[in-house]
Amino acid sequence: MSRVTVLAGGVGGARFVRGLAHHLPGAEISVIANTGDDLWLAGLRVCPDLDSIMYTLGAANDEQRGWGRVGESERVSAELTAYGVGWPWFTLGDLDLGTHIARSALLRDGLTLTETTARLAARWNIGVRLLPVTDDEVETHVEIVDPETGAVRVIHFEEWWVRHRASVPARRFLHRGVDSATATEEALDALRTADIVLFAPSNPVVSIGTITAIPGITEAVRAASGPVIGIAPIIAGQAVRGMADACLRAIGVDTTASAVGRHYGAREAGGLLDGWLVDETDAASVAELEEAGIRTEAVPLWMTDVQASAAIAAAAVALAERLR
Ligand code: GDP
Ligand code: CA
């Protein structure tokens, strides 16, 4: 298994990829990352999921808080707020702002997001190829009913997620700009040449769902010559570390590992997966998933530390090997 390609969101994706790299130190790992959370803020291009992965693999992330840079301060953000620029509820740390300034500068110099990401990641020796799914700006927006005015409004995903903590029901998710977007050649090539394709235990709607919504990706996953194995981001009916349940509700999928697996669907039946890992507490759902054509195994899925994430990656790779 020398070439592994992972579809990943931010925090869940980063934890998983760190374990995968630990399990397969010699492998060529490509990570196709969600860019739907990206936005222009205070004149800067902010890419939350790319940065979560970069900081985590670069050992620069704040483990305690779960996101952002370790040793962070917020002096610049306070200045921006004093000027009424940006979003006061969306704090950008000073060190993190350095990343956004560097990224915006490279983009303004004419580099693509893929090239820009490679330049930023080079500093951190992350050990994997970090690939934005698209170089086009495709931003996830959320249709809500404004709790104050009762009017239907569309807001950026980060406003819904961070400001409203996903507490205002999402009527639907929109991928702004998707019609004129394409997946990058690098991402498509990583799927084409992979010995295994893995879906990280990431948000099925606004991380994996956004990646697969980018034109070209779903077709490339279906056409991949290696097995496609997913890891359930839901354990015992709970959205672990996050609010994935609020996203699943909007698309009418139950918050269970089984419902998410069947939502992705079996590749042999026109879906995306050959294999699926559920947590050991969800072992009762193995039979119905197998009936749906998805080879399923129940193993511990809590990514408590690098070793635990590596064990999950090992189980995914072992399942892929049996399916080859
Ligand atoms: P985000 O972009 O930062 O929201 O991160 P992701 O989309 O990559 O991952 C968030 C999702 O990861 C959460 O909604 C959870 O469903 C899942 N998750 C987080 N921690 C764990 C864990 O320890 N085990 C499993 N199986 N899933 C997890
Ligand atoms: Ca995200």
Please, could you describe this protein's structure?
The protein is an alpha/beta fold and 324 residues long. The protein has one domain (3-85, 180-323): Rossmann fold. 38% of the residues lie in helices and 19% in strands. It is built from 13 helices and 14 strands. The protein has helices spanning 11-23, 48-57, 75-83, 94-108, 113-122, 157-163, 185-192, 208-213, 217-223, 244-250, 257-264, 286-291, 306-323; strands at residues 3-8, 28-33, 39-41, 44-46, 129-132, 139-145, 152-156, 172-176, 196-199, 228-231, 234-235, 238-239, 275-279, 295-299. The strands form four sheets. The chain has a seven-stranded parallel β-sheet, with helices on both faces. α12 (286-291) links the parallel β13 and β14 (295-299). α1 (11-23) runs parallel beside α2. The relative contact order is 0.15.
Helical content band: 25-40%
Figure out the total of helices.
Answer: 13
Gyration radius from CA atoms, angstroms: 19 Å
| Number of domains as seen in the coordinates | 1
What is the CATH architecture term? 3-Layer(aba) Sandwich
CATH superfamily: CofD-like domains
State the total count of DSSP E strands: 14
Distance between the termini: 11 Å
By CATH reckoning, the class would read: Alpha Beta
Structural class designation = alpha/beta
Strand order of the largest sheet: 5-2-1-9-10-13-14
What overall geometry do the principal axes of the alpha carbons give? globular
What's the story with the biggest beta sheet?
7 strands, parallel
Name the ligand types: guanosine-5'-diphosphate, calcium ion
Classify the fold: give the CATH topology: Rossmann fold
Low-pLDDT runs of 5+ residues are none
Overall pLDDT = 97
